Amino acid sequence: MKKDPYKRIAGIYDKYVDRFSHSLRLIGLKRAPARKGMRVLEVGCGTGTYLELYKSHGCEVYGIDMSPSMLEQAEKKLGPDTALHLGDASDMPYEDDYFDLVIAMLTLHEMPHEMRNPVISEMKRVVKNDGQIMLIDYHPGPIEFPVGWFNRMIILFFEIAAGREHFRNFRNFISLKGLRVVLASSGLEIQREKIFGGGNLTVILAKRKD
Hints:
It is built from 8 helices and 7 strands. By secondary structure, the chain is of the alpha/beta class. It has a single domain (10-208), classed as 3-Layer(aba) Sandwich (Rossmann fold), CATH 3.40.50.150. Strands 3-2-1-4-5-7-6 form a 7-stranded mixed beta sheet. β1 (39-43), α3 and β2 form a beta-alpha-beta unit. The longest helix is centred in the last third of the chain and has 15 residues, at 147-161. The radius of gyration is 16 Å and the shape is globular. The model has no long low-confidence stretch (mean pLDDT 94).
């Protein structure tokens, strides 16, 4: 496994970084409401804050992430009974047609370009035929003035601070025009999309075409 890029910040991630994502989680929860007993998987679950929200609504939650230190924080938050998996989302250990909802929030943009399609294929494989995939990520614009430009400066600060490789992947994602282009050959049907944050962010709900 690659060196853990979050090892030094996992313990303070929620306090200094993740709190800026709270509004994104609420927007996502409104678009894909929790139902008691539904199975929810988050790809790139980080410290487990989004899973905690769905778990509080009675969902059965699962998470996968490549960072041991972030998963350690997630287990402290969610408890040892939550199914957390350390591994690569392009080769997930779950059964076909298993989850009602699969989430990837601010995850695809930080992956190398060649990993995105395999990860989306795996998300498509493990979601139920009548289930949903919810993707929340950066949007290339157009950026609204002034709120959009203010948000863009905050985004650039965090993306640059995350390191050279992370920022390179972010720039590639934006240059490709974001989620719609990434999903174009995925075999997924986009049901709904909402652009927010002054043009910087988007949430897409999709389902399998077959």
